Amino acid sequence: MVDGRTLLDDWIQKFADEFSIMLVARSRPLDRKYVLKQLTELVSKLPEKNVIYVLSIKKEGRVPVYVGKSDDPLIRWKEHLKRLKEGKGHYSKWRQTLFEKNQAKFDICLSLVPKSRISKPPIPEFPTTIGAVEYQLVELVTENYPGTALNVEGKRR
User: Fold this and answer.
1) Is residue 155 part of a domain?
2) Is 153 part of any domain?
3) Is 114 within 8 Å of 50 (Cβ atoms)?
4) pTM confidence score
5) Per residue, what are the HEC states of the chain?
6) How buried is residue 101: exposed, middle or buried, by Cβ count under 10 Å (0-12/13-18/19+)?
7) pLDDT tens digits for the chain (157 residues)?
8) Considering the domain boundaries, does residue 104 fall inside one?
């Protein structure tokens, strides 16, 4: 039987090369303008805007820390970046996990998975709708990387 980390890593890796950007390099501050420029270029290459996104850090390999879905990843990530800068609510955990003294603790990457590219679910024989896949990924991340998982919704659904 395949373990949860392998399921998750194998599924994400299918999309990581084509639809990913580096948000910030380790020991660097987050540059919102640069991220939005990179994200705008990435979104322009997508076959559609309806996506699942996976935020990962490079820590002994790629470690997914947050999973979400969006009808427009550029708008969604503008909001994430704004709230991350404010550091309130759930985003205080994001800042604590990802940054120290406003510098990234790790290389931080963002992968987008277009809805039309989801042909297999992360967990075999589960549904492949975008919502079902998002929750499968959230469950796999929170179960297999509990110390770094940033999702607060979608666990145990």
Assistant:
1) no
2) no
3) yes
4) 0.93
5) CCCHHHHHHHHHHHHHCCCEEEEECCCCCCCHHHHHHHHHHHHHCCCCCCEEEEEEEECCCEEEEEEEEECCHHHHHHHHHHHHHHCCCHHHHHHHHHEECCEECCCEEEEEEEHHHCCCCCCCCCCCCHHHHHHHHHHHHHHHCCCCCCCCCCCCC
6) exposed
7) 578 889 888 888 888 788 999 999 999 999 999 999 999 999 999 999 999 999 999 987 889 999 999 999 999 999 999 999 999 999 999 999 999 999 999 999 999 999 998 988 888 888 889 999 999 999 999 999 988 899 976 544 4
8) yes
Is residue 157 included in any domain, yes or no? no
The count of structural domains within the chain is 1
Domain that holds residue 133: 4-143
The tokens of 71 are what? 């009808």
